[in-house]
Design brief:
With about 160 residues, the protein is α/β, with parallel strands linked by helices. The radius of gyration is 16 Å and the shape is globular. The chain is built from six helices and five strands. It has one domain: Rossmann fold (3-Layer(aba) Sandwich). About 40% of the residues lie in helices and about 20% in strands. The termini are far apart. The protein has a five-stranded parallel sheet with strand order 3-2-1-4-5, sandwiched between helices. Bound molecules: adenosine-5'-diphosphate (ADP). Adenosine-5'-diphosphate binds next to helix 1 and strand 4.
């Protein structure tokens, strides 16, 4: 039987417990998941692609069915290249819906063989985004319990280094 594979695309700048909750749920449906970091030259990330990959890999220790990769260009083309016909996205509050709906319809227009699938996050992570985590951490807030340990550590280092320069 062929393997069921999905792509989980995003910026993951940095990965949070919300993202990990989606990964865990997805692994109950799919045999293999590729976390695909979008390398978007228009966005200015806090963490480099390499730093993001390292944090994801460290957070996922013990999940052999998850691969971490990067992509640029059209997501549907990347999905086909990876032999995955599902794009997985997480949904939080209603505010995610409009943008996700627009993206899903555009992706369907571009390639009808690739399906978008949405998983709802656990209520605990409903209001967690990488952006709000970075804001809180940048102001010295305690973000423990919201991100993996390695991310908490790297955020502290990042903002401490920024202060000292
Ligand atoms: P993007 O810049 O593409 O939105 P993100 O890294 O912010 O990339 O998010 C990647 C995916 O993870 C998106 O589908 C987003 O809705 C989902 N996601 C982000 N935060 C959470 C969370 N707290 N719970 C569940 N899904 C989330």
């Amino acid at each position: 039987m062929s393997q069921k594979c999905a792509i989980y695309p995003g910026s993951f700048d940095p990965i949070t417990n919300g993202h990990l909750s989606i990964v865990d749920r997805a692994l109950t449906i799919f045999d293999k998941l590729t976390i695909a970091i979008l390398t978007n030259p228009q966005k200015e990330p806090l963490f480099s692609v390499k730093e993001r990959i390292d944090m994801i890999k460290e957070s996922l220790k013990g999940s052999p069915n998850v691969e971490v990769d990067t992509f640029g260009g059209l997501l549907v083309d990347y999905a086909i290249e990876k032999k995955a016909n599902v794009i997985l996205r997480g949904l939080r509050a209603l505010s995610d819906f409009e943008y996700e709906f627009q993206m899903a319809l555009m992706n369907r227009k571009l390639n009808r063989e690739v399906q978008s699938l949405f998983l709802m996050t656990d209520y605990k992570w409903f209001y967690i985004s990488s952006t709000i985590i970075k804001e809180a951490a940048g102001l010295g807030g305690d973000i423990s319990g919201l991100v993996p340990k390695i991310v908490e550590k790297r955020l502290k280092e990042k903002f401490r280094d920024a202060k000292n320069t």
